[in-house]
């Protein structure tokens, strides 16, 4: 049952991982309540006819209808915070009286800054239920956490504990797990935001690894299940700090 004194949010994005990030961010703010999620503008039209929505988190670059064009079709649209991976849409977004414009990957801190612009209109203040990193960590500890990714015309479930490493391939990522490998259209940095920071480590602009799956490492590379992965020059300091710290604890 929806609470009447909370801001009811609808997330509209064609990418499931992007929707998941926003769902987690919304769950971290007591003043917000998730009304639902939609994968495209057509679904959103039906949803808005049936349910109360105070705030849209709306992706701009979507199939069938751009988010900016979708807003223009609504007679009395809710408040909107645009989300996108492309800076070029910023001006158009603000021309449509958007509350804010969030560039993916969306950090919890940046999310809160945008939400603060909406809350005063409702006489509310931000109450953070739990930092997003702690939410993910707790979820990972208490259940078999997973995400769905679109691959080979279906949604494939991937458990966090099965992931060995993830490789960025321009507009795609390759997720290598114990039982399988899948390739899906996604942004590596967005996935990085969704993975528990205590369990995964960015070692290169093109690689994220599961820390507990590392078999061995040097100053220049890590080895996971017979795969040797390079450590990027800009990542060496942080990688060695994390891995040396992990070694000291074992």
Features:
8 helices, five-stranded antiparallel beta sheet, 250 residues, alpha/beta, OB fold (Dihydrolipoamide Acetyltransferase, E2P), Rossmann fold
What is this structure's SSE topology?
Layout: E1 7-12, H1 16-27, E2 32-38, H2 41-50, E3 55-59, H3 67-72, E4 79-84, H4 90-95, E5 100-103, H5 108-116, H6 132-142, E6 146-151, E7 154-159, E8 163-169, E9 172-177, E10 181-185, H7 188-194, E11 200-204, E12 207-210, E13 216-217, E14 221-224, E15 227-230, H8 236-249
Parallel strand pairs: 1-2, 1-3, 3-4, 4-5
Antiparallel strand pairs: 6-7, 8-9, 8-12, 9-10, 11-12, 13-14, 14-15
How does this structure look, described?
With 250 residues, this protein is an alpha/beta fold. It has helices spanning 16-27, 41-50, 67-72, 90-95, 108-116, 132-142, 188-194, 236-249; strands at 7-12, 32-38, 55-59, 79-84, 100-103, 146-151, 154-159, 163-169, 172-177, 181-185, 200-204, 207-210, 216-217, 221-224, 227-230. The strands form four sheets. It has a five-stranded parallel sheet with strand order 2-1-3-4-5. The chain has a five-stranded antiparallel sheet with strand order 10-9-8-12-11. Mean pLDDT is 81; it is low at 121-143.
Structure summary:
The chain is an alpha/beta fold and 250 residues long. The chain folds into two domains: 7-129, Rossmann fold, CATH 3.40.50; 143-249, Beta Barrel (OB fold (Dihydrolipoamide Acetyltransferase, E2P)).
Helix content: 25-40%
The H-level CATH homologous superfamily of the largest domain, spelled out, is Response regulator
Task: Please state the structural category.
Answer: alpha/beta
**What multimeric state do the chains show?**
single chain
What amount of the residues lies in strands? 25-35%
Measured distance between first and last alpha carbons: 46 Å
Q: What ranges have pLDDT less than 50 throughout 5 or more consecutive residues?
A: 121-143
Element-level helix/strand string:
EHEHEHEHEHHEEEEEHEEEEEH
Number of domains: 2
What is the CA-atom radius of gyration, in angstroms?
20 Å
């Amino acid at each position: 049952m929806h609470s009447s004194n909370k801001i009811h949010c609808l997330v509209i994005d064609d990418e499931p991982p992007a929707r998941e990030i926003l769902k987690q961010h919304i769950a971290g703010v007591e003043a917000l309540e998730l009304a639902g999620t939609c994968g495209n503008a057509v679904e959103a039209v039906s949803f808005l006819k049936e349910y109360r929505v105070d705030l849209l988190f709306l992706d701009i670059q979507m199939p069938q209808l751009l988010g900016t064009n979708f807003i223009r079709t609504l007679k009395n649209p809710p408040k909107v915070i645009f989300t996108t991976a492309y800076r070029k849409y910023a001006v158009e977004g603000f021309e449509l009286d958007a509350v804010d414009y969030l560039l993916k990957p969306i950090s919890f801190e940046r999310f809160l800054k945008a939400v603060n612009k909406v809350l005063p209109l409702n006489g509310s203040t931000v109450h953070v239920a739990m930092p997003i990193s702690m939410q993910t960590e707790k979820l990972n500890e208490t259940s078999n956490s997973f995400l769905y990714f679109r691959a080979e015309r279906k949604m494939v479930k991937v458990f966090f504990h099965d992931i060995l490493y993830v490789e960025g391939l321009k507009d795609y990522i390759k997720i290598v797990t114990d039982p399988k490998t899948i390739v899906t259209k996604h942004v590596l940095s967005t996935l990085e935001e969704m993975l528990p920071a205590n369990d995964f480590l960015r070692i290169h602009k093109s690689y994220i690894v599961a820390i507990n799956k590392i078999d061995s490492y040097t100053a220049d590379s890590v080895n996971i299940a017979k795969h040797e992965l390079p450590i990027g020059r800009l990542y060496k300091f942080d990688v060695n700090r994390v891995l040396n710290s992990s070694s000291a604890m074992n």
